[in-house]
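Sync notes, pocket subgroup
Present: LS, DG
LS reminded everyone that the earlier model was apo-only. Rerun requested with NAI included. Inputs:
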Amino acid sequence: MTRLNWGMIGGGEGSQIGPAHRLGAQADGNFVLAAGALDHDADKGRDYAQRLGVAADRAYGDWREMLAGESAREDRVDLVTVATPNSTHFEITKAFLEGGFNVLCEKPMTMTVEEGEEIVKIAEKTGKICAVNYCYSAYPMVREMREIVRTGQVGKIRLVVSNFSHGHHGDATDADNPRVRWRYDPAMAGVSGQFADCGIHALHMASFIAGDNVRSLSADFASTIASRDLEDDAMVNFRMDGGTVGRLWTSSVAIGRQHGFEIQVFGETGGMRWASEQPNQVYYTPVGGRTQIMEKGEGGLSDEAGRMSRVAIAHPEGFPLAVANIYVDLAASIRGETRDGLPTAEDGVRSMAAVHQAVASAKANGEWVDARPPMYR
Ligand code: NAI
């Protein structure tokens, strides 16, 4: 099968998420990095793109140059990944969708709910794919949990408890480090700090596994380091359309926790737990029975869990290959297949609505608010 042409904006040398996209997109031979505007510094971006194998005339200085350059080509990129800082996602994603390109946007998709709704509408109107990189949903054993819920093996879901709490911004003496400070500065990060950064992964995961949408929420935000305007810790209670109760804790000051993303799902006839730091296992307990450890790659798992795994049982697969699973489904979608589970612009705008409504709730002492974007009310 011919490889698809792939372009990247952001994700330059030394960036956090850039390598995971490059490993992910190219892992299965679906995409070749054909174009890029990789850095806010034009020269550095051009230079790095060429060192990654991009032809000089497609190693662009900025995304507008890339949009013009690629639009004029017959072999234009089939997919553009937007891996720049949050505040730039909307204008870049919008411009490329309107230019007729498929887009994978990093989370959070936009800064406002209005922008999010606009992206959903543009994607619908242009018929182009707009995916959002909720990549944790593409771990094999997360797919297994989703299949277990779908096939009724734990009954109706009563409760979802999701944490994404790490301790890497817990050192008050490091709070002024520019790489840390911007995340809690409204001018750079928007209305929310930790909830918009990590909490939305946990919220998306709750919806993804439960197969339901968040309807209402009540939030308590705290800035535990006094110099921070935005929250570095949040507790969010929520309810889903089908009545499932949700509890979510997200923090960046939980010293000692490393990645700190885990989810527990409790149904009428069983419970399950998965953690990103032990992604090969799901702990499953049937009501009245013993806890069992389900292992990625073992017999008897769902086809979906099998499809998402490439390496033999017990070998760590990990984050870049979860991102790769997103790219596998993107490639299939670009080639005209339907792939269930790919996170889309709808997921992106639902997250943005939850962020903005959580901020409003926290300001109103935890008042319960409608968590849905107006377009889905
Ligand atoms: P970073 O600060 O490490 O890197 C950002 C990169 O984008 C740099 O190479 C910078 O030069 C480049 N850049 C900035 N403005 C640009 C522009 N206008 N045009 C082209 N390049 C530009 O940031 P990081 O941590 O890699 O985050 C990037 C995005 O990825 C954020 O939106 C973040 O929320 C998201 N992210 C998602 C993760 C996930 O699990 N899905 C994990 C980490 C980050």
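DG: The CA atoms of residues 11 and 18 lie 4 Å apart.
LS: The chain has a mean pLDDT of 97.
Action: DG to write up.
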